[in-house]
Amino acid sequence: MYRQLDAMGAVLIEGVKGCGKTATARQIAASEVLLDSDPSAAMAVDLDPRLVLNGDSPRLLDEWQRAPRIWDAVRRAVDDRRLTGQFVLTGSATPSDDVPRHSGAGRFGIVQMRTMTLAEKQATTPTVSVGGLLAGDTPPPDRSSLEVRDYLHHLAVGGWPGLVGADETTARTFLDGYLDMIIEHDIAEVSGSPRNPRLVGRFLHAYAQLISQPATISTIVRRARDDVDEDTRAPSRYVADPYLDALRRMKIIDEVPAWEPAVRSSKRLTMTPKRQLGDPSLAASLLQMSPARMLTDLETTGFLFESLVGHDLRTYAEAAGASLFHYREHDARLEVDFVLETRDGDWVGIEVKMGESELDKAAASLTRLAERVARQPKALAVITAGSLAYTRDDGVHVVPLGCLGA
């Protein structure tokens, strides 16, 4: 964020509600305006957005999306002042495209903030660097202190700053209230029109059932219909589209796009994104998957664990200047859970397996992908819930999630 402030007149911090945007921004802001809790500020914005811009810099404009006119006022102020580091804007939702505003190109830097990783929660001591994998470094042998039950706990509690150190009962109460607020109130506010909370809840539940899978929206809608009786309403595709748009703008949904590499064959690739939520605990809560229940449904738990890996990988990758993708061929003959790629085209293939019984299969998938792609990978790795980090004879790295960091 400091790099962005040094280079741009304003920085926009986006992220799911509760991930710590305001607290983080306050660490660097010299003055602030809280648009969600200061009635006088809201009145001033209605009169003239420029009235709330005066103050020591960087000036924090918290929950700016509640007064979208601020965007253009900040853009103009940046142009007039011709100085970097003037404003920090935070928001839990992106205003609708129906709200007219000028491009922020050249004035705004954007920081995507997510809930905390295992390393940020100090639940682990990382020894394997995602940046190192992208550079082609061989990770050192190591042993993770985390066991399977620890990962299940973190799936249930999530990466919410307010839940660091909390028990699972406290987390369940928090997440139930969090999801109720989204379903009953927030989605209608963000979408700008009333929404049926029961249909929103069914859509989110069906979405969670297909977590970590490249499912189409039609498939999610069919799953929502399958979950209700014939006489009970279920969301249609027409109804689901506004839900999806609002949930994306609220960062509740945080999908992993499909990778389009230069391949040596004419394989058709699936372009459907892999479905993920802003924090893996949201999916666990929607599915009512406590750690005890996770042990009785290991198939679903495997998808939840993959979601946890994807969440942390994405954060580490972005810190290293890379993006997160998934790879799947149209005929499903080959799919790889995650691919990290830098702007220079360097890439790392990642498979996720909770246990070690399918390591050979995972390594074979990674090797086949490397054979298909014209540019050779910097590394191939399988991320597990096991204890040992090492490099196999075929060059594929085995890395416990508890050993992974930026």
TrEMBL record:
Residues 10-120 form the AAA domain. Residues 184-354 form the DUF4143 domain. It comes from the Bacteria. Pfam families: AAA_14, DUF4143. InterPro entries: AAA_14 (IPR041682), DUF4143 (IPR025420). This is AAA+ ATPase domain-containing protein. It comes from Microlunatus parietis.
